[in-house]
Amino acid sequence: MTVQHVRVGDALRLERRPVQVDPTAQYSPIGVRSFAKGLIRYQACTGAELSKLRYFELPAESLVVSNIKAWEGAVAVAGKGDVDLVASNRFLAYVPVIDDLCVRYIWHYFASDAGTTALSKASPGSADRNRTLGIKAFEALSVPLPSLPEQQEYVAYLDRLFAMSAQSEEATNSAVAVVASLRNQLVRNSDHIEVGLGELASQVQRPRAVLPNETFRTAGVRWYGEGLFERDVLPGSAIEAKLLYEVKPGDLVYNRLFAWKGSFALASKSHDGLVVSSEFPTLRIDEDRVLPEFLREWLALPSVWDRVISLSSGGTPTSRNRLKVEALLTLKVPLPSLAAQRTIVARLERCRETLVAVRRRTELSDALPQAARNEVFSKLD
């Protein structure tokens, strides 16, 4: 196999056909996702609704690079069907100037670790938000270029792998949707009485003084009911607060600032000894009346998060709103019998186990295509 190393500027040409924006006309703008995740095709809008940037026609079958996110792999391909789209001056669209070039091959190269590293080096800046890809620097980059049939062979191989990965991701999304739907049906549709959360749980605080010569395992709570996690192990000298609060197994823990995003969790044995700030209240649950796992599932319902928004207080509608413990405890919980709770929790736990397995397969299937892509270009470099 013969591989040439060709300058981008010798193989591709920047194509920019300016658009004279009419405030009353309709335009379909694009964006580019980071990590080579493809084009974003936004809904059509009027010229008056476009940003104040300059706009250009997007050529079909072109390589499209975000000049402000190239360092993060924001590169995509506009296909044959991508017509009548516009791109702002933040996006560089390149078309081939030589016959023996496959645009998708170039895209795969810049989506590889080696290609993304090259894009990063061509995007100087002191901070991520200020890193801009220079046109001259991009066009000076070198790309390993085998013959056109070999390019097409590599593209077909990698496209198949990424298509399989996409199917696996769709399976994960479907599994997540199934669990959410089942949770909603089981928790909301069971025979129940409504009980105030304040009758089922109460705040408990276990203050621990922050001493400079001690270490602290700090915790956080993920959004969307995804659980508690250990964040950092920090010396007391690196913590500004004078007090932190210990977490014990069985605690209900939530993030006051992001309760509206489902930031509720149940602590397990592995979380014993973690500490949280005052932004993460801890509550004990009356297990004679409600299973902690049932309460966790109920707090994972989006309909509950909607109610949390209305109970939160702060300066803006969402981003700075905090849910006080007193407000949380006013929520009404649809409470079935303990036997019914056990049945509901058992069914959802089986679904969770399946979801974990599906997610694990997705992680593996996601890793394989990128590893294959890197292997292809490491052999050509």
From TrEMBL:
This is Type I restriction enzyme, S subunit. The methyltransferase is composed of M and S polypeptides. One of its GO terms (molecular function) is DNA binding. SUPFAM superfamilies: DNA methylase specificity domain (SSF116734). Gene3D superfamilies: DNA methylase specificity domains. Belongs to the type-I restriction system S methylase family. Pfam families: Methylase_S. Keywords: DNA-binding, Restriction system. It comes from the Bacteria. Residues 57-173 form the Type I restriction modification DNA specificity domain. PANTHER family: TYPE I RESTRICTION ENZYME ECOKI SPECIFICITY SUBUNIT (PTHR43140:SF1), TYPE-1 RESTRICTION ENZYME ECOKI SPECIFICITY PROTEIN (PTHR43140). GO terms for biological process: DNA restriction-modification system.
